[in-house]
């Protein structure tokens, strides 16, 4: 399922002395886009959190292609690439709209846990959330 | 009472596109120095927190003189300038050791509260902590 | 002159272990709002920078009232309170729209310089910019 | 070649509302450790930069195991795992000394370029730097 990309401009304080956005900030942009995706998917973070579900980051991988500079507008195109009821994975493209270049590709993996980090099987305990993720995934994990 | 200043070098990711440390990071350095002072004072943050005492930031004021650059060593000279048992104030100088220049002067104010932000009178409830702050203050608030 | 406030939501990574936005991030929000104001004022940062004008931060003062939490929408109401052709000052209110509370009041001061930090008199060298700031100021500095 | 790990404590402002260090900050710690390694290797960042050599980040990969919390002491064990004269790769372990647990494993890749991002062959143009990297690598890339 395709969702509208997440968009904003790069802030001044996100740059470093090379006059480009510091590479660590891209990891923060992935999080912004992920939380935006959850909302578009019908599972806003703050609501699933109230239900006792969290989804800690297990891994992140970023590949840097072209810089983003102060004031550049970028979009993060985020896809739910895997989901098996216990865990999920996302693919990202950070696209620099101002320079018309692909700036970064990325990947992250997450699991579903209770707030004290015990694994959760969504299908059994939260079938509604399961359904929404299942419908959104590009690849059902088989 | 004088304490050893807090020292470290400026990190790469703390710089911005002007090739200087971004001014917001100085506010973080003040916090590093404040937590270091609490420890030197005999009231480590994590211990007072376990006793149920927190000290939220009420205000911060920073005056920027000369930049700090990547790799520069700096020290934060931190003084407890006021303390009245319910609240305290700190004065700071951020000194750039590498360039031998005063980089920033600053001031912050704080109160003592429970973790749900109710005011605490240290003298009554935590006389030991009261004593340590009282001994350390340069000006007793009168 | 009144400008539309700057608005966005607080990001997850801007929070700290107290479950509130870390106070240092407010200083970054002031910068976001300031750059937004420059654009609304007709003097976009990147354009004045190309003309050789920068406006370093001389001081910042923040007073914290009520917290902003993850996902809260806030606005920064920014006013040009002083301007004399060489320097300017801004007043800010950070208003938490979600909790309907004033979260922070702030003040910053800046000067106009060349990129190698020599003072600039706008009236003489950049009368167009001077005009725009002059029209926007609430108090003309007298 | 083994180098002393890079050590420090986690700062308060590095935590998030889960009461753990935000995962994006690990990427910054890798940079701190990398710059420290360059110095131990005899190629301090600021010196190679003066020679016109920079080493942009091409990719970063992080795997999160156990959290680091405010005040925890951690070390970053950094190894030069590949080097071919044009590019290099590093492996990292972030070890939480306070909790005695491996917190994160990571990997980054970099190339050598001029400051305007043209590729550099170290062996030809900077044989001294080449030598130092060659001696330090655990695997010479063949």
Describe the overall structure.
Four copies of one chain form a homotetramer. Chain A is of the alpha+beta class and 142 residues long. The two termini of chain A are 17 Å apart. The longest helix of chain A is centred in the first third of the chain and has 18 residues. The model of chain A has no long low-confidence stretch (mean pLDDT 95). In chain A, 27% of the residues lie in helices and 31% in strands. Chain A is built from four helices and five strands. Chain A has a five-stranded antiparallel beta sheet with strand order 1-3-4-5-2. Chain A has a single domain, classed as Hotdog Thioesterase (Thiol Ester Dehydrase, Chain A), CATH 3.10.129. At the A-D interface, helix 1 and strand 2 of A face helix 1 and strand 2 of D. Strand 2 of chain A pairs antiparallel with strand 2 of chain D, so a sheet runs across the interface.
